[in-house]
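User: Structure please.
Assistant: Input sequence and predicted structure:
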Amino acid sequence: MLPIWVRTTSVAIFVVSFIAGMGLVSWYEVGEVRNDTTLATFIAIVVKGEAVSVVSAAVAGAFEGGVYIVVIAYEMVKRSFNRGRAQAYADAGRKVDAWYKRMQEARERGEEFNEPPPRFEDEQEQGQD
């Protein structure tokens, strides 16, 4: 679900672009086209207003769609990161459990256990050693 500010901004974008577009259409039809009757000018403004409303809706929809894409991408990255973190914790747990088991077995046999505990570093850090 998108935050409420996205819908509010989308509606504001539509309203502002529609008012600006209708202002331009009205200015053009009233001020620049001088040989029409009042009715013809009104009809021209209404007909061109349909196109203005479609363009305004497209601009607002592009904004809202863009935000939706960003939200989806964010959620996908977040889930991937959480899944990766869970996998890393599980791997670390298995390594520690295996190390502890080897240590216990060595103690039961009465042997000295010199193996250091597992280290958990980034792969880049390990490659620089």
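The radius of gyration is 33 Å.
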